[in-house]
Every structure is written in structure tokens, then in C-alpha cells.
Amino acid sequence: MTATSSNLADLRKSYERAELNEEASRSDPLQQFDQWLQEAIRAELPEPNAMTVATVGSDLRPSTRVVLIKGYDARGIVWYTNYESRKGQQLQGNPYAALQFHWTELERVVRIEGQVVKVSDEESDAYFHSRPLDSRIGAWASPQSQVISGRGVLVANAAKYGAQFLLKPPRPPHWGGFRLVPDTWEFWQGRKSRLHDRLRYRQAGPSWVRERLAP
User: Fold this and answer.
1) Which residues have a Cβ under 8 Å from the Cβ of 71 and sit 6 or more positions away?
2) Which has fewest Cβ within 10 Å: 9, 105, 157, 188?
3) For position 67, what pLDDT does the model report?
4) Helix (H, G, I), strand (E, B), or coil: what is residue 126?
5) In the chain, which segments carry CATH 2.30.110.10?
6) Which residues fall within 8 angstroms of residue 133, CB to CB, at 6 or more apart?
């Protein structure tokens, strides 16, 4: 075993900040998620809206990446991206994904699984036009997930589309929102002695079944 591996094996942390029990948790997982996300925002954590998106391609190999949540309600969890990116292409072939939020300082994890659909053109347009100008130009400039010869390609593309669209770039046809429609939620709260709290909500018809999982 190398010295580095030995050091990693010795890393330990005792989770003692909070607890998660059935009596104190919400019966609706969306309400529980909203409570935890708002607490992460109030705690001024770095990028509390960052989430990992896991998808599976036609080769059955999973892949993950970090994106930013841009909306959530009873319909699901929304983020925006290039539809021609790797994740966009994978979701077209297999429209199921998993999301994960990890709020390290609060010793909390939320996992969400479900089917993914595109948001409406109206929703994508509204969000796109709320973005800063350089981000709107960037959506045109970056052929996301494609091999490019260097950063100069992006700079040249940004200059090209900036000159073409000036202050009013339209939403690219290949760019818009995805919405994950949850059928499973899991809330994880770190606890002492590795006896962590895990509550899973699974959909059963129009209602949710809440159950405790062993850590």
C-alpha cells in the first residue's frame, strides 16, 4: 500500500450535526427537499444549488457531471444545458437519470431518481433571456462535449456570434431545459458511529411511501 493510500484509509469524520427521523420529516419529499435546500442557502454554503446528474448511454456506461438546479416544483427538478452534449444525447436514448446534492457542511445528501423530459419552449426561452449576455453568447459559442483544437475555437466563436447577434441573441435550437420527474427520493443525514439516517420516499400511485433504510 502506498503512503497516499494509507493516508486516505486513515481519514475519519464523526457526523454529529443533526438527525433525521420520521416524526420530524415532511410527508411530502418535495417539501423536505425545499426545507433542506433553503437551509443550505441560508447557511451560505458554496454553490448549494450544485447537483450531480448521472445518466447512462447506449453502451450501458454511466457518466456523471455537475450542473446547477434552476427550478423545482411539483412537476420536478429543472436544469438547462446543450441538448447535443453527451448528457443530452444519453437522455434522448435513455430518458432516466439520477440527481445528487451533497451539502458537506450540513452532513447531508439528497438523491433523486426518475424520468427526464424536456421543458417547454416557453420555459426555456424565459430562462435563456434571463441569463447574462455573455452566457447567452456562450450557449452559441460552445459545441458542448465535442473535441476542439483549442480554446481559441471558443473565443473565435464567441466573437462571431457576438457580432452577429449583438445584444439580442436568440435561444439556440439545441439549448434548453430538462426536467426530472421524481419517482424516488432519498434523504441522508450523517450520524455518529456511522449509524446514519436514511429516509426513502417512493411513489405509490398518487402518494408517497416513506421508509427508513439501513445505513
Assistant:
1) 77, 78, 127
2) 9
3) 97
4) helix
5) 14-129+173-212
6) 167, 169
Query: Cα-Cα-Cα-Cα dihedral of 135, 160, 120, 116, to 10°?
Result: -70
Number of alpha helices (DSSP H) and beta strands (DSSP E) in the chain: 6, 9
Instruction: Name the residues annotated as catalytic.
Output: 194
Q: What angle do CA 102, 103, 107 make, to 5 degrees?
A: 105
Distance CA 122, CA 149 (A): 35
What CATH code is assigned to 14-129+173-212? 2.30.110.10
The span from the CA of 215 to the CA of 197, in Å, is 7
d(CA 191, CA 189): 6
